[in-house]
Every structure is written in structure tokens, then in C-alpha cells.
Amino acid sequence: MQRSSAQTVSSAELTRNFAYWQDRAAHGPVTITYHGRPRYVLLAAESWDAEHAVGERESNQRELEYKFLVEHMDGGLLVADPELKITDVSSAAALILGHTQTALVGAPITDALPTSTHVTLLSSLRHVLRSGEQAQFDLTLDEGNGTRLRVRAVPWVEGVALLIRVSYENDEEARLAEQTALEKARVAHGRIEVIRLSVRGTVTVAEIEFAKLVGLPRERILGLRFVDLLAVPDRTVARDAVEKVLSGRSEAEAFDARLLSGGSEEIGARISIAPLASGYAVGGAIVIVTLDPQGETVQ
Length: 299
Hints:
Belongs to the phD/YefM antitoxin family. InterPro entries: Antitoxin_Phd/YefM (IPR006442), PAS (IPR000014), PAS-like_dom_sf (IPR035965), PAS_fold (IPR013767), YefM-like_sf (IPR036165). One of its GO terms (biological process) is regulation of DNA-templated transcription. The structure is a single chain. Helix content is about 35%, strand content about 30%. It is built from ten helices and 14 strands. It has helices at about 10-15, 20-25, 45-70, 90-95, 100-105, 120-130, 170-190, 210-215, 220, 235-245, and strands at about 5-10, 30-35, 35-40, 75-80, 85-90, 135-140, 145-155, 160-170, 190-195, 205, 255-260, 265-280, 280-290, 295-299. The longest helix is centred in the N-terminal third of the chain and has 28 residues, at about 45-70.
């Protein structure tokens, strides 16, 4: 049905000629004014039903999309109103907090978390509500096993949303200690270099010792393709290995090659490369270069 341009009628005129304006409403909305100001809209029932159905479909679609994202996000989600009462909670968040979704919705947010965390929690959430800024903080879940809750609070449409993840402090400390020990062992070994590559195969991280090894300033190495640091005959094998890893077709590749050093000189090395995960994709690669035990340099 084609609609006419905007129509306006005073309430007095509508009362006197209701049949006429009722007919006009069949061709498009009629704005009813009172003392010159818009107060109501007269709309044909079929138009109202059609627009209401479209709005309802759009609302249902948004609700489905929201639920899909919430249930597939990494961690859990809590949503609270300005009074810090929970209005929505994902199944993952309910599982993390040890409550049912039904029990959490409508409850004060402090009911969902250990009492020992309330001061930190409320202070941070009130800051988010007041300032509109994000906040990140940790809450203790279990002192005995070092379990903590990593929380990122962000402004929501009406209130605040909390993205929560469980963190195991003891595990993190153990991983950090292991990484530190491995780094010390690598430095003591003296013949191992670690390089990081971008998804394009260019060098993004290289240490000063590696720069000295290849005879280039570190600033010049960053941004270079890694394969260009190798002797020309070895570049095809290296290029294939890098491409396999960065494309996700291989979990790791290893090969023998010669590093260019000081122009015409070459240093024998064993090179391995493994992908760096970024979400569900490859975000780059780590390259480990093990130099020839004799430090052999080929002219």
C-alpha cells in the first residue's frame, strides 16, 4: 500500500470529521495535535500489525544473536542494572560461580560472589557506572588452591556487564617459573636464538645477539622476511616450511640451513618453526635457530 505524505489534524477537527480522517489513516499515519503540539498518531490496523510484526521479528533476531554470542564467548557474562542487580547471566558464568541461572537473575551481584571480594567488586563497578570507563580486577574464589576470578567490567546499555574467567594462580606461577628457567638455560647454552615472525613471514622480534650473528643492525632485521636472512640455495625449503606453518597446514617444521653472516659468510644451523595461535587463527610464528655446535662459518 502506497502511503501519502505526512498528515496532521487537530483533535478538535478529528472529532468533527472522524469518518474522513479515519479514511485518511488508511493511506498513512495521521498525527493528532492538541493545542498545536503532536499528541497521538492515528494508524490503520493493518499498518500497525505489519510494523509490529517487523519490529517483533527484528527483536527476536537480535535476541537470538545475543544469546548465540554469549554462549560461545570465551568465559562467562554477567549483566547488572544500575542498582547492581543481575539482569542476565550466561550458562558459563553460572557454572563458574556455582549457581543456577534462575537463582542469579534478579539477585544482587554480591550474592553471586564470595563475601571477601565485595569491597573491591562494588568499588570497581560503581566506578564503571559513574565514569563509563572499563575496569579490570581479580577476585579470590578459593585461597586454598589459588583460584581467582579475572573480571573485566564494561559499561552496558543499562548498567554494567562483567566478563569473567577462572585463573589458577599456582599454575600461572609454575608456568612463569618454567619459562624463566628455560630462558636462563637458553642463554647459558649460547647457541640457540629465538625469533618471532608476523603472519607475512617478516621478523617482528629478534634479539641483539642474533643481530650480531647475522652482521646487521637490529633495526634493519625487523620487518625483513626471515628467509632473506638465509643463504640463497636454502630459501626454497625455508619458504615452504614458513608457508605451511603460517597457513595452518603444519603444527611445526624443521630443516637445516645456512644463515648469512657479514655478507658472504654463512653459518650452519638447524631451524624449527611453530605457529603462534591468535584466537582460532594463526597470528604468527616462533622460530628457533640452533647454531652448528662448532660455530662453523662457511666462506
